[in-house]
## 1
Amino acid sequence: MGTIRTIQYLRAAAALAVVVFHAAEKTGYDFAVGAAGVDVFFVISGFIMWVISDRRPLTPAKFIWDRIRRIVPIYWFATAVMIAGALAGLFPNLVLTTLDHVLASLFFIPVRSPSSGEIWPLLVQGWTLNFEMLFYAVFAASLLLPRHWRLPAIAGLFVALVTIGWVAPLEDALSLTYTRPIILEFVAGMILGELWLKGRVPGTVTGSLLIACSLGGFALIGSLHLRFDEWTTGPLAVLLVFGALSIEASGRVPTLNVPILLGSASYSIYLWHTFAISVVAKAGSMLGIPPVMSMALAIVSGTVAGIAAYALLERPLLQPRRTPPAAVGLTGPAAD
């Protein structure tokens, strides 16, 4: 769909917020509001899926295959590293007692972790991918519908699921996961995508105010320790993305190479940063490094580890195979 710079910048900011959250947590500080980067990711995911499906025809099978190719290999590799580390005794708090948990982690099925009792896969941050895969499956099915029915159908289903979770006493991990209000953030992103496609975004001044309100809300939540869940952070994430799109529509967004890189690498940063942070935090504690310096080193190392994983693993795997020049003829290679 072309590069929407502000979306790339928000992906970078969301990934860094999660990195800072985990680095602070590991070094004795508090930056819980950084976890709201996940809410921003979900809104962006809904937006991107809606826009790309509008700009090129997609069958359900093609859509799912593209998502699997994008998400699964890197996630499985990171999970395999986690399992190998646990078997080698590098992660003493990780319990590998059930094959069910391992398989559920690999195939995005929400189950409770034997290590903590939480609904977490082996690679803890992979919990968000359980929601992403639900959204992708529903979105793929919606491609069988006429375009004007897709958004209402997905929105109706997700609202129904959230309503069930609100009124029914649910206990199993699958039901608790797929009825969480956080799934509505995908719908909000799709609505923003439709507004973007129709050119119905506010002007720069209004967009700037939306961004200011969003950041101010996050700051209040973080500084005053206000209620922190998808009912508060979700709307703020929507305001942030909508405001960013308004700035994008002005056509005056500069190209900033470092944020573009961080945005492109945001998935790898998200998956791999905790490995580096854990090592740095542990080393800092053993060597007596001041906590604030350990946190700074953890942030840098987590980010660099993610960028390295993007360059060495993710990007090569996603690089499209091109037809050799001699076989192309006059038409040139197929577009990505």
## 2
Amino acid sequence: MLALCLPSSLISQPIEEQRVSFAAGTSGATIQAQITGSEITDYLLGAGQGQTMTISFEPDNPSAYFNLMLGDGPEAIHIGSVAGNSFEGVLPASGDYRIRVYLMRNAARRNETVNYTLNMSVSGSAATPQASGADYADGLSGGPDWWQVTGLTAGDTLNVRAGPGTSHAVVGALANGDRARNLGCRMNGETRWCQIEVPGGQPFTGWAAGRYLREGSAPGSGNSGAANEAAGMIPCALAPDQPMTTCKFRVSRGQSGTASVWVTLPAGGERYLDFRDGRLVGSDPGLSVQQEKTGDLNRVRIGGSERYELPDAVLYGG
């Protein structure tokens, strides 16, 4: 499954969110709308695990696409610029799905406009969740001393943010089984966010979506998600004719080559690189991605001009 992480710190234009609901007796909806330049619109649609979602996107500008993501996390099930303007698939989990409409960066910079029609439907019955005595993050006060991350699709990670919502910057990421101290939860719209403290050699504090947290025991040595945090330097170039120099990076690793990499750009800001099973699957909105692997070196090209070289040790550790 493709995945794409979009840290809010990389999106200067506020994202407009619209909740989608189907009329009584129907299983779908059609939206006709418009965005201009760097505007981004997210359509939130609730659905259940095991149901089939179908989406078709009809823009009048060939530089417009949609991505499909699960919940408030950045994991993308469908990347329009790679897989095209239609999607049909069985949903991996219950919750909100986010359909993100955007213009590719070249069109956004020219302040182009797109008029589009978005058709979406959900069919079939949701799977019945198994009964469990585990204490999930479904309350706003009290609760266990420690949470354990659960419910992520294999290979995905849970973003930890600076505040309770997707508009806040990503400060770290956790994988299934990682544990964090419970500092209390609060609602942001219809989403429950929990403040957590991640222990380890480089501890950090942030907020995570409560639907991925359940009661856990205090971690022993070596069980911290922060142990998968690292920083350093990698070769980089920001223009096709520019010789390689070095850029700072930081990485949050999951399991088996799942890694979120942020590269500090010389002119300011960061470039985001998202890897699953050692494969580059996405970057910032509207940017194309390419990867060439030679031995244990990953040569990455973003947007047709930027170049980065990452050894496997960045993605897998070691």
